[in-house]
Specification:
301 residues; alpha/beta; 22% strand; globular
Length: 301
């Protein structure tokens, strides 16, 4: 049964981070090996699935396997900024205390529902139902990804992604994000598609929807690990919290300001903007992480 606590990646990429303090509320965080089970809802091509699978693998790849700045370096920052602090407090809800276990994402399984068994217009209440079908392991995350022709309640209007609880007692969480390519790329795949105003950058993996999806998956997974059940790290209202990545909307590189993603790396071959190298030669754009110690947004570049 899903808990009431959920977090959304809202459409706030033109809004500066708020100055409120992001603090630890002494609840559970996810540590150690974190099994991630993926459910592909709707039609995704093999190439599209590979973008996400390679990103997930990149999170726990040895740093020396990819040139800096890397996806694994970004993931290590979550441990440094958040998980180690929870361990120091020693009240991490039974998911580890004392010395923090390094969080390591393990891709544990993938299932497909190409026929969209629950229809192509989903309510938020159906997301944990789909997540349960992925059978997330204890202490793990079910990753629900919806195809570009699947509508989800509030998608594009008020959110690009969401995370919540599948079963708090079992320590399982879920993350949902959708392919926004045909519905709202200017909102949920920015800066790879032009918004109401501002620049547009080519996507590093050649797919606006999937490269935007990586951003939203990264943002929501960061939240799911540091605030899986609503009593971990967040600032503001528990019912609508700002978390590790959502506290830094629209910030991807140094010098970012509303409508400008910041100083990014550029792939000389494609002209694509990115800030992280990943497995199998992939390049990705990952959100800044809020540093609670300095109340600033920490970027890879």
């Amino acid at each position: 049964m899903a808990a009431a606590s959920v977090t959304t990646r809202k459409l706030m990429f033109l809004v500066q981070p708020q100055p409120n303090q992001l603090t630890y509320h002494n609840g559970a965080v996810l540590q150690g090996d974190i099994p991630v089970s993926v459910i592909w809802y709707g039609r995704f091509t093999a190439a599209q699935k590979a973008v996400i699978s390679d990103f997930l693998v990149s999170l726990s790849t040895a740093p020396q396997s990819s040139p800096a700045p890397s996806v694994s370096q970004w993931w290590s920052s979550i441990h440094q900024l958040y998980l180690s602090k929870a361990a120091a407090v020693g009240t991490s809800g039974g998911h580890g205390s004392g010395a923090a276990k390094i969080a390591r994402v393990v891709l544990s399984g993938q299932v497909s529902d190409e026929a969209c068994s629950l229809g192509k217009s989903l309510k938020l209440s159906q997301l944990p139902v789909l997540a349960a079908r992925a059978r997330p392991a204890k202490g793990g995350i079910a990753l629900v990804l919806t195809a570009q022709d699947v509508a989800v309640e509030g998608f594009c209007m008020s959110r690009c992604g969401r995370h919540g609880s599948v079963d708090a007692k079992a320590g399982t969480a879920y993350v949902w994000a959708g392919n926004s390519a045909t519905q709202c790329p200017g909102q949920c795949a920015w800066p790879f598609h032009q918004p109401a105003y501002g620049p547009q950058s080519p996507p590093p993996n050649g797919d606006v929807g999937m490269d935007g999806l990586v951003i939203n998956v990264a943002s929501m997974v960061a939240g799911a690990v540091t605030n899986p059940f609503g009593d971990g790290f967040y600032q503001g209202d528990r019912a609508a919290p700002l978390e590790a990545a959502t506290a830094c909307p629209g910030v991807y590189g140094k010098g970012a300001y509303p409508g400008y993603a910041g100083q990014l790396l550029v792939d000389t071959a494609t002209g694509a903007s990115y800030n992280a190298n990943g497995a199998h030669g992939r390049k990705h754009l990952l959100p800044a992480l809020f540093d609670p110690a300095t109340s600033t947004c920490s970027t890879l570049v």
